[in-house]
Fold this sequence. Notes:
- The chain is an alpha/beta fold.
- The protein is 44% helix and 14% strand.
- The chain has helices spanning 20-30, 55-68, 90-98, 113-129, 147-157, 168-173, 178-183, 205-214, 226-231, 245-251, 253-278, and strands at residues 8-10, 34-38, 72-79, 103-107, 133-137, 162-167, 192-194, 238-240.
- Helix 1 (20-30) packs parallel to helix 2.
- It is globular, with a radius of gyration of 18 Å.
Amino acid sequence: MTQAARQFSLAYLAIPGTPPRRMIQIAGETGYDFVSLRLAPVTPDEPRYPFTTDRTLVADVVDALDEYGVPLLDVELVRTDPGTKVAEFTAFAEVAAEMGARHVVTQVPEPDPAHAVELFEEVCDLAKSCGMTADLEFIPWSPTADLDDAARIVTQASRPNGGVLVDTLHFARSNSSLTRLNDLPREMFHFVQLCDAGDQLSTSESELIRVARSDREPPGEGAIDLGPIVEAIPRVPYALEVPNDAKRKSLGDLEYARFVLEATKRFFDALDTDARAAAG
């Protein structure tokens, strides 16, 4: 049976801080199938866009998505920091659904395993009420540190719209298991955050964060063995989360987004060629 064509999204972190309409325009003009947006800020120094309170902004985003023909794949970020109530994200979820988002990136930095499951259940229920999936991202420097942690939470939560979000950088840096990845139910994956990176020089938290936020590479341009990772996951959309401050500055936002997409397509072309050769 012929597999569906691969689809790619311009992830927010590829060109972080870009105004929403401009990001959608770049995704459309460079040939992405989707765009991914950050509705809630993650760091204190990034631009803040009042999606939940500014109806004009939301209307402009909806108009831009239609104008450039680029659907909204996922939105960031529901992160249940200590003291945070999931209900605080109700307006976030409603706006995301209004803009047509399919998936909500979720992080649960909760060290208590039972409470982590409860929090994720609440996020799933909120996302479901708005017609979206909740996709749990594991991050090496957080309590949900690797694939096993995320899979345990999603499995125990047992929500039909709950999923595991694999960021290939975090998969590699957390030394997560390919065997475990292959064994997980296929329906647990809704999309993937795809990137490459250079040789791992340090496992310090500060260095892991620096690379994650500003020094990744397009697939095939770094040292991560990506082939077995992507082959273990069903063909779901790939959000190209490839922040690289130096290359972005050199190329400019539009050409950098194009460079990332073209490099990714070359990576998959090579992967397909190798697969055909192996099949004889």
